[in-house]
Queue: 3 jobs
Job 1
Amino acid sequence: MDLSRAQVPHGLVHVIAERCKQCDFCISYCPVDVLEYSEDTNSKGHHFPVVAAGKEQACVFCRFCDLICPELAIFTSESQADASDG
Amino acid sequence: MSIPVEANISLVDKHPADDLLRADRFPHILCPGCGIGTVIHTYVRAIMESGVDPDRHVCVSGIGCSGRAAGYVNVDSYHATHGRALPFALGIALHKPDLVVTVISGDGDLTAIGGNHFIHAARRNINLNVICINNFNYGMTGGQTGPTSPKGARSPTAPDGNQDHPFILPHLAHAIGASFVSRWTVLHVRQFQEAVLRMMEKDGFCFTEVLAPCPTSFGRPNNFAQGLHEMEMYRDRCHIENGVSRMSDLQIDIMDPDWPIIVGNFVDVERGSYGEHA
Amino acid sequence: MVKLHAARPPPTPRLLSGARFMQGDHACAEGALAAGLDFFAGYPITPSTEVAERLSDRLPAVGGRFVQMEDELGSIAAIIGASAAGARSLTATSGPGFSLMMENIGLAAMMELPIVVVNVQRASPSTGLPTMVGQSDILQARWGSHGDYGVIAYCPDSPQECFDLTFEAFNAADRYRVPVFVLMDEVVGHMAERVVIPEPGILSIRVRKGPRQPPGKEPFLSYAPDDDLVPPIAHAGEGYKVHMTGLTHDERGYPITDAGVHHKLVTRLVDKVRKHADQILMTEEFMLDDADTVLLAIGCTSRSARHAVRMARAQGRHWGLLRPKTVWPFPSDRVRELAASGRVRQFVVPEISLGQLRREVERLTRMPVINITHAGGAMPTPEQILEAVES
Ligand SMILES: Cc1ncc(C[n+]2csc(CCOP(=O)(O)OP(=O)(O)O)c2C)c(N)n1
Ligand code: SF4
Ligand SMILES: [Mg+2]
């Protein structure tokens, strides 16, 4: 099988920055290490997740960051882009 | 709001589950790294997948940090007194049997002050779904020892370490007659959500224990100062064993780093729910 | 897919009517059924058990739900929950169980969920004399749960009134959204007399005031009161997505930590009863028009008092009886009025308590208040009342 041509689901990450309390769950448990902390903080002083440089196409849309977030501050949507050409 | 726009992220102000949340009350009051938020999240997802109109779902909580769950979900929701979530929910469920009633309760709320209602609601097989958030302590009042606190755990009321034997909640739930019994952690979000859905589908008294970090009250004196530390412990030590053969194997000793924690769906039987003969 | 249970079929009317001979506990149960009782949860306790026993048979027969709970903590919580789902709900107990219910009576007051609690009083404190009469839970009924809140309490003096006032209690609970008590006593609960039950349809059942907006669009403000201080109520399953809590809450029902909001809320809980006292109050006056000596008594003791009035009148003395049918709110204005009439010289308070009722009268007047007391197990006789006043 030609893995380079397989259709891997691909996701976009969305964040509600004000809800984040910087628990680290999403960053720690992303299976492909898409996320890192923002440089800036929200109004409570928490750094929130952003997509790490170079990881823009890496999200596999597993939704784990969303499911595990205690604050309902992060979710993903399926991107239309074809992951095989990334 | 002082949120700058970061280049690498889509910043939004609404979550897809917000219709099922009292979103105007977010961010909620729970501490950073507290597992209770994930339980709330899982519950609303299960509602979304249940196929039942949210207007027919009801959430009842008692008192405690876990008890705050009812205040964040956008279904008819009731925050009863400490220990009394179950009988309050029983009143609703028996008067309107067409509602899907879920109780979200803390370990102390459900099995210390509310222990008597727990054993009798299960014995009667009242049609309720019970999610017991076990964070091994009384989080809200500052981390005092509770009925699930591990032996040796330090707390403001056990400065030299807890001497009492903790409950094995799924074992207890099984012994008192629950129709469905499972244990998951907030790390096992997918399996936990499946268990909650199963409870919503199923008649009779259904029980899920969900282990959840309480970094502030339990964690700090017991080497889990961050929620993530306890999540890592779940990751390292949890084994999935559905239908475990001996319920007593479900004993948890989280103070012993080599002690395995068994999670899974353990019991799923038909007993005929309360009042079915009526 | 989640299976939904079919809603229960509508109740088949099987209410009693006409004249019957029955004990107070049973009449109380029939009064509740006539009022459209949907849900009863209770735990057996003498001398109230007959209320539960009667309902275990009669309530399912009219389509309602009877549950015997594991204790009184569960019973009271269950009836509050059922009320949240729209049920007319009841529990029945006696002193020890009433004590266990106190925390959740405050919850019902704070959530403004209507409930009716029957307390057939026995000799107390503690386990006391389980089978014998008492009237010493009067102040507990008013003040037993922590904090300030309003309640209504009826004191029937006969099986007929056990029926009538239990019926009335449900209407009052739904009208004001407060906990309502039927404070019976062992004598009234266990005595059998003729009880006349009106034909169905004669008694009017008050319907709870519901939301005036359809569910779904605008958020429903569960705690926005009308001019009468009582907010409309939406029940579980009606689509309004209510939130109810014992925490201090705003009009939406959401917890809020604010002394101003707290003060306003709790003041309203008290004022709902205080400001409608004239509409709630029920008293009976017996030979009071020309009385210089006013007996004030409730429940079974008022039967002795009434007899004492007759005996005194036979001796040419001007006695009369004021009988509160509602001990809460207390008929304070009427007592003050009598005290200020210039005609009344003294009050006489016989009771099965060491002075709970006297205290209420004493705080309203500087006139002499003669208190004939028994701690429980026996009631003051007419002769004892006459003697006490003479000496
Ligand atoms: C009758 C009563 N007793 C004590 C309390 C104080 N109290 C509030 S929450 C709580 C313990 C809660 O523990 P748990 O149920 O485990 O919930 P958690 O906060 O850990 O989620 C206690 C003792 C109370 N509110 N009411
Ligand atoms: S004290 Fe513990 S249980 Fe309570 S919110 Fe904080 S972390 Fe959660
Ligand atoms: Mg706890």
Job 2
Amino acid sequence: MADVSIRQARKSYGSTKVLHGVDVSIGDGEFVVLVGPSGCGKSTLLRMIAGLENITEGEIAIGGKVVNTVPPKDRDIAMVFQNYALYPHMTVRENMAFSMMLAKAPADVIEAEVQRAAKILGLDVLLDRYPRQLSGGQRQRVAMGRAIVRDPQVFLFDEPLSNLDAKLRVQMRSEIKELHQRLKVTTVYVTHDQIEAMTMADQIVVMNGGRIEQSGAPLDLYDTPANLFVAGFIGSPAMNLLSGRVRDGAFHADGGAVMPLPPGAPPTATTYGIRPEHLRLDDAGIAASIIVVEPTGSETQVSLNIGETHLLGAFRERVMGRHGDTLMISPDLDLVHLFGPDGRRL
Amino acid sequence: MSATTVPATWNKARQQPGRLARLFDYKPFLVFACLLPALGLLGVFLTYPLGLGIWLAFTDTTIGRRGVWIGFENFEYLFTDPIFWNAVFYSVFYTGVATLGKFALGLWLALLLNNHLPLKSLLRAIILLPWIVPTVLSAIAFWWIYDPQFSIISYLAVDVLGVRTTNFDFLGSAWPARWSLIAANIWRGIPFVAISLLAGLQTISPSLYEAALLDGSTPWQRFRYITFPMLMPILAIVMTFSIIFTFTDFQLVYAITRGGPVNSTHLLATLAFQRGIPGGQLGEGAAIAVSMIPFLIFATLFSYFGLARRKWQQGEGND
Ligand SMILES: Nc1ncnc2c1ncn2[C@@H]1O[C@H](COP(=O)(O)OP(=O)(O)O)[C@@H](O)[C@H]1O
Ligand SMILES: [Mg+2]
């Protein structure tokens, strides 16, 4: 096991700059999730850690040792690919044993290791099957088994769940987390799904356009997003972000809504952020007209208009109402996020 | 039409289909009608010549004289004919050595071209050239290359490099002639092998190599454990075709040596032609041609078992 530190890493393909100086430090045994929209450079960064892409500038160190010029096989890392990259002509057993076979480990040691990994992942009965005879979730598990057998310093996952259906995704999510708690191997996990990031990570690194927007513990990111991008990206349903201006101690949104401000709010705020779950039903609040009501059972999501300003609310209460009805709401003032014209949190 | 009153409901079932329409709805007729063109072509261009050839092999037909059935007499004669056995030997030798050469060099080229090279598509086009040129033309080129006086290889060795004092005699004696023809066949056969195998290589997912890289493999191990097994299915197909084409080769040998010197480079195909057409012994020539059939059946069986889908391949669906 080892820590990983990435210092001012840059990557360009020819003249196309993909990463513009990225700093991440990952503690020993930590589960770090790189999250960001598609094309932001997450896979590139992961592949640089693995050694599959060279590092244009900057430094990557694993266990205190700079690995910029260390070939992939000597970095002692295991990677789970998005398409699993299982060897189609080898059985599950051969897939898992491949790295040890290359290292010329004795047959009984290989078999013991494969059995151990198979037991952890519940693959015991599938060892003699070929990848094509497995379901998506089973293939996913074989890919992890192949990584576990290696007993590496660092696990890398590149969107491992994106080929699975929704239900399996939730199940595998907790399996991976459980696996990490059991093995305590430093893990870097790439996903574009912020829910995966929130539920699995010790530390989330939010990336956008080849830069890091913010990194920190999941709930810190949720509670104090550093900028508009993170505010909009983390949390589901997404935060309401209203642009407008502060006037007379209230926030006047462009669409006409007038939102109350917490005491001492900076007058320079140009964006008012409030999460749907932080709007309350309040008879003394603001009148909003209902557009759509979507009950999910545990909560009710209501799409609202205050004047021309659109808002989404999520309420514990069961809201009854139809299109055009009026709902009285107010924001939880402690949980209002304000952002300046540069997009930064104030 | 406009004057008649149209009934309010139009009932399709009332219409009686015509005789012709009913005929075409009759499945056995339809099957027959659709198969007819293919059967006709196969019958005229495949079954008839093949049948005729086999029949001729059991007669003593010569050019200008209708033969009579003589049973296995042609074969009995051939089995005592050293020239025939020489042709059998050389056909097998030629096919074996040339196939080995084509696959070794073709695979090597395919692996090279599968890397990121500058001018990759230009190189691929150039590789195809030997295959595009008509065989007879390239045979004539080789004829010059192997010429006792004007050979460019002799010129290079004698006049330019000075490593020899006399010209090579490529085609003048048996073994040099045999090897020279094999070299020409390899040259001609490489493009087919290289391009087919390149197509096979490109179907292998790069992430398999990346996974193997992380698993700690050397380049040789990646070839041995990933490239080669995954290329096996296409390799088997290409090899079968290549063996059949090489075994039945005619043009190259006939254009360069005509089977000489002293019948040492006759393949079964050239010998069959030699005996049958210029020699006039149609029956005997046909018997030589027919004697190729067991070898070709063997090659086809090889393909049948070699190609038998491997277990890991079957139904390559996603789930
Ligand atoms: N080999 C390459 N050549 C040029 N551009 C590339 C290459 N690989 C990736 N890119 C670009 O780098 C950016 C980041 O890609 P990637 O890391 O795969 O994003 P993601 O965050 O979706 O995993 C993308 O804009 C992509 O177009
Ligand atoms: Mg990616």
Job 3
Amino acid sequence: MKVVTGVVGNDIHVVANRLIDLSLRARGFEVFNLGVNTYLEEFFDAAVETGAEVLLISSLNGEAEGWGREVKALKAKYKHLDNLIMMIGGNLVVGSGNAEDIVPRYKNYGFDLVCHQVDLNTGLDTLEAFIQERNKQ
Amino acid sequence: MSLENKLLIDVGSTYFKISTETSIEQHFRDFNKDILDDLMHHCAETIGKYDKQNVHICSSANGGLNTLIIGITNSYSLKYATNIAFNSGINIIDTILYQDIEDYSVPSELVDVVIIVGGIDSCAGIFNDSLYSYLAKLDYSNIVFVGSSQDAPMIEQNIENVDILPNIIDNKLHIVEESLKEYLTNLYQQDIEGKEDIKSLYAITDNQIYPTPYIVNSALPLIDARYSIVNPFILLDIGGATTDIHYSKDLVEENIVTENEYDRLVFKKLGVYKSKQSLIFAAKNNEFVYELLMHLKVTENIFNEQGAKATKILMQLAIFLVLCKLSHYRKAYVNLKFQTINSFVLTGGITKVLSTEEIEDIVAFFYKKILTSEHRPKVVLDANYDIWTLGVKGDESCL
Ligand code: B12
């Protein structure tokens, strides 16, 4: 299964991005890593060019909120991305924040899976469970 | 050399002009017509009065391929193919975002080359009937597919005479330039060797059709007789598709041409009509352009506008970009000794749009910002195409 990943916006925190790349490969995914400093349009465009089923965005420096708000409008312009699984993780707000507020807010922005300050392996387990569940339907 | 009984015709990318011993007229080209038909439509009576031996034609209209790129995203397929096309010397590029292809109108003009691109090799089934039905309505000479190799057989089955080349996007989403670049460069070469349009003009002349820049170049030694210019000078011919620069050899350290007093340089990508998109592309990549726009009291939005004001700004930008390219700031093919230039002569469509003051303003901005110099050469406009007439007069072999 193909996954496009990267760090959104002007964010240069690269360590998690490298770990995500390795962990996804170890779990058998085909990874297209756009690296740090990636804009939303590039994520969606990469999903189109590669035919990816999953988009996994990470954000560490606190920019996520601003980008999150733009997701719905931008994604609506694409005609063939309705089935794309949308996931985001890292530090999704400035400061620590409260997952109970953050998760529903990001789901509302258009994400299927929201992992605020969740450890990577736990997050990827959730992703695999989600994919299995969807395949059953 | 006498011009008596001579009819001079110049066919440009945007308009043509015809000159008799007593008058000079100019008409916008109608691109739905063959050049000869267009010319006859406006000037049949005048042309009819001249013997074929006395009609002299020059043309700059056959420079460049008209290209349409159909790709699936802005950040990858369209961007990569556009980049390769510009680097292959192509001036005119239109793009279609494939998912919305049904919303695009079909150009009435013949497209020289259509490029279809999209998807990495492991992605398949990207294109379908909407592509084929668009192409069925489109008038094109060449078509090339540079998308996913898995889709190539299907494309080949559905599109007649399609050329298939390796994907320009690799599996890491990186650009692969070589094969498409070579293909486009070859097409461009064939195009220059003879457009049918230009060939049909031999119906009205017995004389060889010369490239316009050749004629302009012949005028240069005669120019100071006509204008009060101070040598050394450079001449800029900013047209619809290309920008030509002619400069005296005193202005460069090393010379490539040795027989002539003047050298010539062309920027194929800088024009305000046919190569408008590449002009804007170049402008956006120049870090001083925003300051210049501010100086001209407009914003970047002007790039999306049409009309007289936008054309004026584009012309001013074209002057600035050309000067940048010739200076040490953007080391190009040659660097002119700008401190030594005494006059700037401008000819071509630009003289109908900008005033001397507006051009002086840009030249001053360039000297100040790029060269941090107070030097201000004199600006001279060739508003009545005298240079072109002079050139035909000046070149014995032409008449
Ligand atoms: C190293 C670091 C830097 C380095 C980055 C070097 C580099 N090129 O990577 C430098 C010094 C450049 C830097 C700069 C900045 N940083 Co910094 N940085 C850190 C630091 C100390 C460690 C980050 C790291 O690499 N951790 C190791 C990795 C493995 O862990 P991680 O990033 O947390 O990722 C884990 C999880 O979040 C998860 N994960 C990540 N993404 C995803 C996605 C999904 C889907 C899932 C499931 C999981 C997941 O997986 C990882 C492993 O479990 C953190 C503080 C900290 N201790 O976390 C601050 C921190 C991230 N930085 C911070 C800030 C504010 C900045 C700056 C704005 C500082 C400034 N004022 O200039 C700049 C921003 C620069 C920019 N343009 O982005 C803040 C962010 C605060 C916020 N979000 O509210 C932090 C949290 C520090 C803090 N407590 O204030 N930083």
